[in-house]
Amino acid sequence: MLSELSAIIESLVFTAESALSTDRICDLLTEYSREEIRSALAELEEYHQLRNGGFELAAVAGGWQFRTRPVFQPFVTRQIKAKSSKFSQSSLETLAIIAYRQPITRAEIEHLRGVDCGGVLKSLLEKRLVRILGKKDIPGRPLIYGTTKEFLEIFGLKDLKSLPTLKEIQALDEAPQYERQDELPLGQELLIPVESDLPFE
Questions:
Q1: Is the dihedral of CA 116, 107, 170, 156 positive or negative?
Q2: Which domains are seen in the chain, by residue range?
Q3: pTM (2 decimals)?
């Protein structure tokens, strides 16, 4: 059974439009200490894990949010029939560069991609996945870009430290041991057919 504070926090997280940070919960519940709130959050997280229901309390985008369990995703999409956000290859490349290199200017992004990124940047800004952080203190004072809280929420990341490392990404490309096969040793005689093997005179 949940404590009253855990139940209060559960209702706050449930009704929040985006991930609710511990700081925001503390601001809303001034009658409780930060330690009491942290303890109640831990209790709430454990309660939903043990309950093994259709959703869980997840630490995402620097806050807390209720999310359906990934294992039930195929069933949930049947019901809501929602179109998942589709990203073009250029959008994903640009977003990855910004996520890993932020704060970064448009010129730096274009240098890394080798193509103009104006349209892609505008699209990412409209989708609220990227934001303008300010201006770089160099001649021309170009805008600098970084990712948003919405970016973390969409990709299910607790924070930017949760981004996969280069090693983890490279491991995805490596074929498992059982899929690898050595080249068959072909003798010279198999490479050049002799006259008697040809199907015509």
A1: negative
A2: 4-80 (1.10.10.10), 89-154 (1.10.10.10)
A3: 0.54
* Rounded-to-integer distance, Cα 41 and Cα 64, Å: 9
Quote the Cα angle for 71-65-20, to 5°. Answer: 170
Overall size of the chain counted in residues: 201
Q: What is the pLDDT of residues 117-176, one digit of tens each?
A: 888 999 899 888 999 999 988 888 899 999 998 888 888 888 888 888 877 777 776 655
Residue type at 39?
S
Q: ∠ CA 72-85-95 to the nearest 5 degrees?
A: 115
111 by DSSP, 3-state: which? Answer: helix
114: left (phi over 0), alpha (psi -120 to 50) or beta: left
